[in-house]
Amino acid sequence: MEVEQSNQAKMFNEPSMEPSISFVKALQELKNIRPQLYSAAEYCEKSYLHSEQKQVVLDNLKDYAVRALVNAVDHLGTVAYKLTDLLEQQTLEISTTGLHISCLHQVNRYMCAYKKILLF
Prior knowledge:
Family: Belongs to the ABI family.
Number of domains: 1
Function: Involved in regulation of actin and microtubule organization. Part of a WAVE complex that activates the Arp2/3 complex.
Organism: Helianthus annuus
Order of helices and strands: HH
Number of helices: 2
Largest sheet: none
Protein name: ABI family protein
Number of strands: 0
Radius of gyration: 28 Å
Strand content: under 5%
Helix content: over 70%
């Protein structure tokens, strides 16, 4: 019986952890962009310095920079979306908990009133 309740608790909590895990993963992916951009910048700098076709390298660098910026903004949007989803879920959980507390408080008042009636 106790194991069954433990399994039910795990099953109940797993979906509620999903937005949190998803947010952390999206944030980590955003953090991973930084070293990639530094590496690409170093490569572009070396290519520019050692190339005889500097204009071609510069044009390629501009294209890459635009794509990298779009990618970073896209990741920021993903992180923002995941954070909003996480906050909405937590707000819902807080609201639900508040309703449960209110219900328990109401039951408690009812039981106290019922107890007083029985005592008289």
